[in-house]
Structure prediction request, 776 residues.
Amino acid sequence: MQQEQDRGFSLSALGLGLVTASLAECFYSSAGAYGARSILLLGFLSTAGLAAAAGLFAALAEKFDLFSGQGFLPKLAGWGFFVWFALETGRTIAAAQIVCREHFGSNALITVLPVLLLVSWQMNGSALDRSARAIWWLLAAGILACLAGLWDQMHWHRLFGAEDPSLWADGWPKILIYPEYFALPLLCQGKKVRRGALLPFWSYAVQAGYAFVLELVLGQAAGPDYSGLELLRAWALGYFSRLDALLLLLWSAAALWRICLLAFVLRTLWQRNSGMEKNACIRNQNKGAQT
Amino acid sequence: MQQLTTKLSENLAALNTMFGASADYYAKQISICGCPAAILLFDGMGSLSSLWTLLLDAVNREDQFTDFEENPAPGQQVYDYLMHHSDLPAESTPARTLDDVIMRMTAGFAVLLLDGCEQGMAFAVQNLKFRSVGEPSGEGNLRGSREGFSDLLRINLSLLRRLIRSETLVMEVAQADTAMKTEYALCYQRDKADAQMVARVREILQEARPELLLDSSYFVPWLLPVRYRLFTPVSYTERPAVAAAKLCEGKILILVNGSPSAMVLPALFAENFECLDDYATTAFFSSFIRILKYVSFYLTIFLPGIFVCLAVYLPELIPPQLLSKIAAAEQGTPLPLFAEMVMVILILELIREAGLRMPQSLGHSVSLVAALIIGDAAVAAGLMSTPVILTACITSVALFITPSLYEPATLLRLMVVTAAGLAGPVGLAGVFLVFLFSLSEVAAMGVPYLAQHPFPHKPLADDGVIRRDYRQMSRQPFNIWQRRG
Prediction:
C-alpha cells in the first residue's frame, strides 16, 4: 500500500475534484454573464495558456525538487501551497455549506464534516483514489440524467440572438485557477505529472459545457439575474417536481470527497514541511499482511 | 521440551503424571523379545483392534526376532528392527520428546515406547469420529460438487488433494501456539502463489498467539491488524471445490483442525457476488444474476436511508401519488418515520438472530409469531406504517442474497438510516462516503479489496459485474497477484 501511496493520485481522481469545484462555480455564477461562444473560444485560449503554465511550473518544480520539504525554497513553496490548499478547502466547504443550507435547508454539514474527516484522516492516497471512481460513475450518471431531462428544452436557435454580439463584448471570460494545477509533482508521479498539465481542460470542459447547455435551454437573454442553478431547475422528468436536488445531492457527495482529498493534501504538506513524514511511515509499518 | 529417556519407567511416570487421571488414557505394558515396552494411545481416537492387528500380532511372533543375541533384547535394537526391517506400518519420523509423543497420541496415533530406547515409534491406528463429508448448509449451489469440508484437518486436506492432483499443491501443517495446541494448515499452489506473501503469512501464523484457535477466522487479527474495519479482505468457504478454485487463482488457504471453514486470502469485494453456479450457466444469465446481486446489496444498505431522507427532507423527489400514500400511512403512527424505520430494522434483526440460535424445531414457531406480530399486529395497532415495513422487509430479504456481506451490510444499513434521519441529504452523502472509504481503504497483501470492482477503469471486465464466455475467459487464467495495486 505504501507503494501505491507513492504513485500518487490518478488524473481522473484529481479531475473529479476539479469538476466538482467547477460545477460549484457554474451553479452560483450569473447565467449569461459570458456568452457560450466567448467561453468556448476565449476560454479555450486561456485554458491552453494555463495548461502551458502548469506544465512549465511542474517541470521546474521537479527540477528544483520544490515539494521535498527540505531546504529554504522547498519549505517556502510547501507552506505557500499549504496556505493555498487551505484557502481552497475553505472555499469548497463554504460552497458545500451554501448548497446544503439553500437547497436542503440543513446546517448538518457542520456536524457531518468533522466526522467524515475523522474517518478519512488515516486513509492513504490510493484509497481516496479508488473511491473517486465510484463517485465519477454516480456523477456521470447524474449529469446524463440531467441532460436527458433537458433534452426537449434545448433549442439550437437560442444560440443565435437577433444581433450577433462581438466575441469581446462580454470581456475575457473568468478563468478558474485551482492549486492542483501547480502542485502536480506533489499529487502525481511519473508520466502523470506531464499529462496532469492538461487538468485545466477538465475544468474548462465543465465551464464551457455548462454555459453551452445553459444557452441552449435559456438562450442568450438569460441575463445576470439568473444563476446557473436555473439550468438544474429547468430539469424535469415526468412526475418528479424537483430533480435539481438529486444532482445537488450527488454534487454534495463529490464536494465532501474533494474536502477529504484537500485535507489529505494539507496533511501531506504539513508532514513534509515539518519533517514528520518519516515518523508517519514508521507508524504504518506494522500492518500484518495488509501491504 | 522434555526429551524421552532410555528408562521406560521414567517416561511412563512422566506421562502418567500428565494423563493418569484421564479416563481415555490407555497405557499397556508389554514385552517384545523380552524387552519391556509400552503401547500408549487415547481411547476413542486410536482403534485398539487395529493396533492389535497391526502390531501385537506381529511382534508376538518371537521367531521373527531371532537376530538378537542378547535376551532380553536391548531397546534400541528392537526399535531399529521394528523401524527398518519389519513390515509394521510405523511412522517414518520417531517421537523424541514428550511433546512429540503427546502430539502423536492426540492425533490418534498409538506410540510404542521401549526400555533402553530414547525414541518412540508411532503407528497410524486412528479411529477418530467425525462429521461426514456432507453438503455445507451455508453455500448452496445447483451444479457442481456437493462435498463440504469436514471438521478434521486431515480429511479436509485429503479432499483438496483429491481435487488438485498436481505436484504444485503444497499443504503445510503446523501447530499453533495456543493452549489447545491446535493444528492448522497453510495451503497454496507453488507455481501460482506469491512466494514472498506465502512466507509472510507463514511467519505471521507462527508468531500468532491466539488464546484459543477454533476456526481459521481467529487468525484475522494477526494477519490483518486494524482497529476499526467494516469489510475484511478475506473470504471463507466450506466447499473443497471453491477452495480448490481459489488455490488455482494463486490465493492462500488456511484450514484449522476442528473447523470446516477455510479462510481464503486475499479476497476481492467482487467475489462476494460470485459463486460456482456462475460458471456453470450461460454468461448472459450469470451476468444478469450478478447485476441482481449488486443491486440487492446496494438496496440493502441504502434503500431504508434513502426512503427516510426523501420522505422527510426531500419529498419533492417522490412522485405525488406515492408521496400521498406514504403521508396517509404515516398520519396514523405515533413515531417519526426515522424512529419507525430503525425500530423495524432492529426487530427484524432480533427475529433473525432468534431464528438462528433457537433449536431448529422452535425456529419455525419464532418466525411465524414474529411475522404475525410485525406483519399484522403492528400495523393494526397503528404502531408502524406499511410502507416502512415493506421497505425494511425488502432490504432484509435482499441482504440474504449476499450472506458473506451480512455483517458489514447490517451495520451500514443502520448507519445510513441514522445519518439520513438525523442529518438528511448531507448525512446521506456523508455516510455514502464512509461506506466508499471503508471499501476502498481495505487491502490484503497489497491487493486492494476494490480491485476489479464495478467502478474500475474497465467496467466490463472479463469476470466482473458481468462475465464473458467461459471459453474466452479460460484463455487468460486469472491470478490474484495481477490485481496488486
User: Anything to note?
Assistant: Chain B has three domains: 8-124, 153-267, 286-444.
